[in-house]
Amino acid sequence: MPRSQTALELCASKQWPSNNDVAQRFETLPHPGLASDKRYQEVMCSLGFGVEFTDYMARASWNESAGWHDFKIEPYGPLSLDPAGAVLHYGQEVFEGLKAYRHADGSIWTFRPAYNAARLNVSNERLMIPQFPVEDFLGSLVGLVRADRRWVPQAAGATLYMRPFIFASEAFLGVRAAKRFEYGVVASPSGPYFTHGFKPINVWVERTHHRAGPGGMGDVKTGGNYAASFYAKSHAFERGFDEVLFLDAATNSRIDELGAMNVFVVMADGTVRTPALSGTILPGSTRSAILQLLDDEGVTTREETIELDELWMGIKTGDVAEMFACGTAAAVVSIGSLTMGEERVELSDSTVAHRIYQELTDIQFGRISDRFGWMYRLA
Ligand code: PLP
Ligand code: COI
Hints:
The protein is built from 10 helices and 18 strands. By secondary structure, the chain is an alpha+beta fold.
């Protein structure tokens, strides 16, 4: 039976206005000092992830009387914030992440932006932040990418990573939802997220700390979830691991998410499983796309509870063939080992991860037809 579409998937597949219809929503201001050619060349010749930023950023503000207003594409630079600004004290903020891909004909596209816009609004609702209209979200990406066009890399596999965010700016220390907010989008020309290419990653299974709990905020994209993950992540990095597999906080026995990525398990019989969206897991756009790609290929997929003990045993017996993680930043990354305390299990296969990575990135970079209608032209 085909999967029923989630609310985010339904929003992503709606017919949204085209780039030209939303392009004028944000006014582009003059830039007094664009990056020099020398600086531009330096940045584009050594692309990291999220370290260098473009000439411009998108901005808008919200207050009770005007709602969202002051939509601008303006020179990239520091924001001014009152030291009592609510985000600094209570962490009322949300963000998104998506990429701009340059196709061979020079056109620039992004992947399912309405999915991210809808998810931003789910995050907004959870954090008592005003809804941000999908059309304005699209307009901010179109406006920014058109102003920053030269920063969308041409190098194979490189992209312009775009980071929309909203934070509470009201200067007020009382403990309640703020009444002033700022929206922004910054963009960073980026190479691959994992610098060692498609090499399988070594994962630490974290049994002491959790990133989210039942009724918490794990299913939305807010900074606190990432702050909550850093302790385990830093300790794992120090011991040479690439990522952390978090378990659910209620039972400490089920696999949840891999750092900032969703996780998949490929069984020896070809079935592909991923933890169900239980409320503590972010509903990844990549996760959703992979489920659709696999369904389309006729692969059996299951969204369900995955017990760590069963997974561990399955890897040992060979019932589990492969594991991989996915997200916008890395696309798809294969998992080579899991370590829990002193015990380690290895996974040697990455066939499905490779195939899905290739198919997904071929669609994103316009090398094969976009048969699901996922791509949105920005410029
Ligand atoms: N899980 C978490 C916690 C994330 O931060 C992300 C990244 O956005 C994902 C999963 C993957 O989501 P997506 O595929 O939409 O990038
Ligand atoms: C992703 O895009 O996959 C992420 O996990 C975003 C991360 C850089 C916060």
